[in-house]
Amino acid sequence: MEIDLEPLVNLLLKHRDLNLSGYSKSTLSRRITYFMGLNKINSVEELGELLVEDDVLFQEFLDKLTINVTEFFRDPHFWDKLTELLKSFLPRRIKSWSAGCSIGCEPYSLAMVFSEHRVLHEPIWATDFDKGALERAKTGVYTQNEIKNMPQRYMKYFTEEDGNYLVNPRIKALVRFEQHNLLQDEFPESEMDLILCRNVVIYFGHDVHEYLWQRFANALRPGGILFVGASEIIFDPGKYGLSLISHGFYRRR
User: Fold this and answer.
1) Phi-psi category of 162—alpha, beta or left, where left has phi over 0 and alpha has psi -120 to 50?
2) Angle 176-63-233 (CA atoms, 0-180°, nearest 5)?
3) Against a cut of 0.70, is the pTM above it?
4) Measured between alpha carbons, how far is residue 83 from residues 72, 194, 236, 240 in Å?
């Protein structure tokens, strides 16, 4: 049975400054129902009261609201294409943003590409809504499953310890993690050479897709590149001042 989420959405906006209106209704309903089941909460009204009163439960709610299924070099052939495209920036020092970076696999993958190919760059700005994911990202410790598609040449940037894989401190130092809400916080303006936002936008509603594609396009310098997920397609990219390079890659005109 479909649940009415509007009162909860309004309550969290008022008392927690949390704007959930842009999420896909089906996605939001599934995650809230799952969270209620985990915590034996019987109604949306009860959930709302608890989230307003209990800071610990609210943080747990935020953690469950975001999906942190990720891995290093997800869709490896896309990363090969990115490496090729980076040549167009030479000899400029690249300014990059990994938006919705989750537990850090994506920005660390980019840092390894920069290091391997001696690409000049500013510190990589890596952002996410989920504080818990960011804290884990900062540790730089990963499981076997999270490095399963790692090209062999990049394994030198890890140290194995007790079955986990630790990112080289030199690589960690290339990434700056920061909390950022894509629906509420400010975006850069015409200053990024490269933005990675992969498998994030698909969890929002159609109106938010358009909003985010435009904001990302505006954040890029002319000639800058937007790298999206394999299942994400920007229809009519010219509407946002973008042009298709190849599947997954768009350039600001």
Assistant:
1) left
2) 70
3) yes
4) 15, 12, 25, 24
Query: Where does 76-252 sit in CATH, by number?
Result: 3.40.50.150
Nearest to 116 by CA among 75, 165, 156, 160: 156
- pLDDT tens for 51-86 read 999 988 987 887 677 655 688 999 899 999 999 999
Reported as a single tens digit per residue, the pLDDT across 199-209 is 888 878 788 89
Q: Where are the domains of the chain?
A: 6-65, 76-252
Residue 121 confidence (pLDDT): 97
Q: Which residues of the chain form beta strands (DSSP E)?
A: 96-99, 124-128, 141-142, 158-161, 164-167, 175-179, 192-197, 220-228, 242-246, 249-252
Residue 203 burial class via C-beta count within 10 angstroms: exposed 0-12, middle 13-18, buried 19 and up:
middle
Residues of the chain with pLDDT under 70: 1-2, 22, 63, 66-69
Q: Is 115 exposed, middle or buried (0-12, 13-18, 19+ CB in 10 A)?
A: middle
